[in-house]
Amino acid sequence: MKTGYIILIILFAGVFVLGCTPNTKEIQMQAFITAHVEKVKPMEKEANLAYWDAATSGKSEDYDKVGTLTLELRRVYSDPCDFAFLKEAKESGQVKEPVLARQMDVLYNAYLENQIEPELLKQIVELGTEIEKDFSTFRGTIDDEKVTNNRIKEILKTENDSAKRESAWLAGKQVGPEVSDNIIKLVKLRNKAARELGFENFHTLSLTTAEQDVKELDKIFNELYELTNEPFAKLKAELDAILAKQCSVDVSELMPWHYHDPFFQETPLVYDVDLDTYYRDKDVKELATKFYAGIGLPVESILANSDLYEREGKNPHAFSTDIDRQGDVRILCNLKNNENWMETILHELGHANYDKWHGDDVPYILREPAHIFTTEAIAMFFGRLSRNPAWMRQMLELTDQQQAEIEKVSFKYAQLKQLIFTRWAMVMYDFEKQLYANPDQDLNQLWWQMVEKYQFVKCPRGRDEPDWAAKIHFTIAPCYYHNYMLGELLASQLHHHLVHKILKLESDENVGYVGQKVVGDFLSEKVFKVSAVYRWNRMIEKATGEPLTPKYFVSEFIN
Ligand SMILES: [Zn+2]
């Protein structure tokens, strides 16, 4: 412990007003946290502002500044003495006051993931960067001609000739053998780092620092597997019949290249509907502003600081950022008046609202969403509305007949989209778990076992190639993919709770939440204001009456 804390200990000894008198460990912990916050608060704000400047300007000196500030922050969290203090305090079991213990846990995890020995960390970062570079520069070939990923995707979306589809699919997999040895090397380095910190492998370490537990996730994914097995088989049979007909092959001859993207993670375009016509003459920013005001979550102050339209050099995607955990929340978009950007602005403003309304009494360390996937869930919950027929009718002033037309196709599309994504997420979760458990096993075979088990897609006969390695996420976002799935599950659980318990309706038919202030009240009270005061599953249980469960996602999209 550092000397500066002693004075703070004396100061804070008198701060605990309610409840039992704090013990020595609790006093020390409070002092540690106070000193820590004093140090990181300005650093984090500066780093967030630098990132915002870089994303909006595109200037390389701004990006350099982000790099420097991120490294400085990382240095704080890699301090071994601070970590030893946190570890000792945590293991003593004496820090009992719930909000204080919660802050200790959050800090402990933040330090834990930064305790990797510097030389090993350097190797991990460098190898990761090298693989990422290989990904961005490699081009597959069709008949000896180089093709971009966009070209491959285009062929898979539009071509009816099976041989041409096969060549495109194969071109998309050619990066695999180029990067697979390095990915296995990276996995082993990450495992080494995890073992040095006392964990079985990197997968277990990652889940632990993210406050997730393999058993808890396995349970959710197993349940989801059981619940979606039959409906997926049925829907996929319908889809296969359409795809086979389009390419004039028998259903039994369908191969991985007959689906509309390289991994069968997206919905083939067969049921899609063009909703852009409904948004073309509208202003998506106005619509989002009006909608959020109507549910009691006004967004004017967020939008005032935001950067919404395309500009040379600006980041072409979208994100939301909490600059100071004290209300300076901004979103970046590149708005156009179409359905995709309607979804995106609703999505980003969902994140932004979560960050905007931290409870006044929540301490700095906990002024964050309960988990990365809980904020994703809120964003998805609102983003889904851009395709919701009832929402569209009310917001876009459509006729009943127009609503009925949208309904005819939108449900089928949503169902297919969610089922396909669910089965794909299972492949990613299960494969990655086993990849870190044993990187020396036959991974090529393991991959196709998973694809056949979860996606019902056949491995091409005799194929023994590292097709799994063509997925960049194993390199750039390790052990993260499952969070997208958990976000969808929670979005549905919140939707179910709002419909049945808050609006007290029998079904969600015609529910678009327009003008329903109770929706904003519920979310801000039960989700936003509690921030990270509870671990994610406790927050979900307190808000909806039960821990995270796949059953509402299944009932919303599948039954
Ligand atoms: Zn998001």
Radius of gyration: 25 Å
**In terms of per-residue confidence, which ranges show pLDDT below 50 for 5 or more consecutive residues?**
1-18
Distance between the termini: 57 Å
Look at the helices and sheets and give the structural class.
Answer: mainly alpha
What does this entry show, briefly?
The protein is mainly alpha-helical and 559 residues long. The chain is 64% helix and 3% strand. A two-stranded antiparallel sheet has the order 1-2. Strands 3-4 form a two-stranded antiparallel sheet.
Care to describe what's here?
By secondary structure, the chain is mainly α. Helices cover 64% and strands 3% of the residues. It is built from 24 helices and four strands. It has helices at 4-13, 24-57, 60-77, 80-92, 98-112, 118-137, 149-158, 162-173, 175-196, 202-209, 214-246, 276-279, 284-294, 300-304, 339-356, 372-383, 389-396, 400-437, 443-455, 473-476, 482-502, 517-528, 536-544, 551-557, and strands spanning 140-142, 145-147, 319-322, 329-332. A two-stranded antiparallel ribbon has the order 1-2. A two-stranded antiparallel sheet has the order 3-4. Helix 6 runs antiparallel to helix 9, helix 9 crosses helix 10 (202-209) and helix 15 packs across helix 16. The longest helix has 38 residues, at 400-437. 36% of the residues are buried. Mean pLDDT is 93; it is low at 1-18. Residues 347, 351, 376, 379 line the site of zinc ion (ZN).
